[in-house]
Amino acid sequence: MSEEKEPLFSGKNIKLLTEPLNDSNPITVQVLGICSALAITVKVKPAFVMAVSVVFVMAVSNVVISLLRKTVPPRIRIIVQLVVIAAMVILVDQFLKAFLFDISKQLSVFVGLIITNCIIMGRLEAFALSNKPWPAFLDGLGNAAGYGVILIIVAFFREFLGSGTIWGYQVIPEGFYDFGYENNGFMILPPMALIVVGVIIWVQRAKNRKLVESN
Amino acid sequence: MRSYSNTYIFIFSSIMVVSVAAILSVAAMTLQPFQKRNVEINKKQNILTSINIESTAQNAEELYDKYIIESYAVDSKGELKEDVDAFKVDMKKELSKPLEERSLPIFVSSLEDSKQYILPVYGKGLWGPVWGYVSLENDLSTIFGANFAHKAETPGLGAEIETAEFQQQFFGKQIFNETGKFVSVSVVKGGTADPNSKYEVDGVSGGTITSNGVDDMLKDCLSSYEPYFKTLKNNI
Predict the structure, then answer these.
(1) Number of independent structural domains in chain A
(2) Does residue A17 belong to any structural domain of this protein?
(3) Are B45 and B55 in contact (CB under 8 A)?
(4) B110 by DSSP, 3-state: which?
(5) Number of structural domains, chain B?
């Protein structure tokens, strides 16, 4: 390891932040964390809160694990990672219950289930345990944002087509309904999230040819 | 890779567990007053929904003070329990007591120049508790409104008891028959309720156990108010 001081936003660090948004997106490329993407993307607002919660949990646990990386005994490292994630998730859950009660009711068990989100454990194990806190922080931020962006895109389409609203505000004019336009009730059901994710993967690969597997 | 002694591992895990526990307890204690207040506001919103008043978290307390004119608790013999705060009664705890010792809360609202009696109900669904509020009109038999909630019923099936469609079926139903006998409102198999019956509503198809839970809940909880209703009727 070189002791040279690396600038905070060197090309390598920027890449940690931006790669998960596209080339190694946790949902569309690595196909992780799908179950929560199905469950909480009916409306944009809960999806946004979920995304922010995951960003917080992931960035903080990545930094904590990275700080502890030289002291954690390898034999119990998975347990240590779980304890750190679980503690962060409980903090987020308690905070939502205190200040965003309605959304916390909508997200219900899914906040608790952030613990089992494989993206988080995956990044702790693969990155934070062997890197310094600052890159670990960027990596956590990037991956959680990559996850969150997809959540919000999926929620946008599902809320727009399923309820005719965005962030709870009516965007499809009342007049349309008079001409026989109807909200697509199917969009509210979980299977449509899977299809929307599929369409996003399709669009992404059509634009980004290097993601297409050759076989 | 460096190897660590067992002692080190034990010390490491102990320190980790103790510090995490400390952080979480501090957080839980500082946030508790806010959470309690949210739960209270939510309860008020649920009570208001049972008399068909829409409210938001912001105006719930104001509307509650405006429409709910009285709240008190009675015992199973129909006598007033002076020392009980109806709003603070925890139905789950009450139902685990024998019937004679229970406090039965009643909230009285005033709407449309008449009085409504709001009664809390609590029972078992498939995966966890179901609960709600049922409001009766001044005749103490006709259902004015109903609001049900659940902890963990299956979305799309049992969880449908939370929807307005399910709850609206109860409006105008009777819990006492013509001869004044307590019959409750039965939640029958989905689609089989007699539309002319005043004592039946459709259950949720595919949510039979939850529907039965609502059925039992109404029978158990509403029947315990019968003695009180008798004394109330005699006084009118």
Answers:
(1) 1
(2) no
(3) yes
(4) strand
(5) 1
> CA of B18: how far to CAs of A66, A73, A87, A210, in Å?
20, 17, 12, 48
Q: Is position A37 within any domain?
A: yes
Size of interface A-B (CB pairs under 8 A): 51
Q: How far is CA B13 from CA A69, A81, A83, A131, A133, in A?
A: 14, 12, 10, 22, 21
To the nearest whole angstrom, how far is the Cα of A185 from the nearest Cα of chain B? 13
Chain B residues with CB inside 8 Å of A74's CB?
1, 4
Q: Does A72 touch chain B (CB under 8 A)?
A: yes
| Strand B200-202 versus strand B186-188 pairing type | parallel
B173: DSSP letter: -
Chain B, nearest residue to A89 by Cα: B24
User: What share of chain B has pLDDT > 90, as a percent?
Assistant: 33
- Of B15-24, B172-181, B227-236, the poorest mean pLDDT is in B227-236
**Chain centroid, CA A132 distance in Å:** 22
Range of the domain at B173: 68-235
B46-73 pLDDT, tens digit per residue, is 899 988 888 888 888 888 888 988 888 8
Residue B152 predicted with pLDDT over 60: yes
**Model confidence at B180, in pLDDT bands (50, 70, 90)?**
confident
What residues of chain A lie within 8 A of the CB of B20, using their CB?
83-84, 87
Residue span of the structural domain in which A37 resides = 26-211
Q: One-letter amino acid identity for A175?
A: G
| pLDDT mean over B143-169 | 85
Global ipTM:
0.77
Q: Quick check: B26 contacting A, CB < 8 Å?
A: no
Min Cα separation A58/chain B (Å): 17
| Per-residue pLDDT, A208 | 84
Positions of chain A with pLDDT lower than 50, given as ranges: 1-2
Residue B134 pLDDT level (bands cut at 50, 70, 90): very high
Residue B109 burial class via C-beta count within 10 angstroms: exposed 0-12, middle 13-18, buried 19 and up: buried
Residue B54 within a domain: no
Q: Cβ of B13 and A79 within 8 Å?
A: yes
CB-CB neighbours of A36 under 10 Å: 23
Taking an 8 Å cut-off on Cβ atoms, the answer to whether B1 and A90 are in contact is no
In this prediction, residues B113-121 reach a mean pLDDT of: 90
* B233 phi, psi to nearest 5 deg: -65, -40
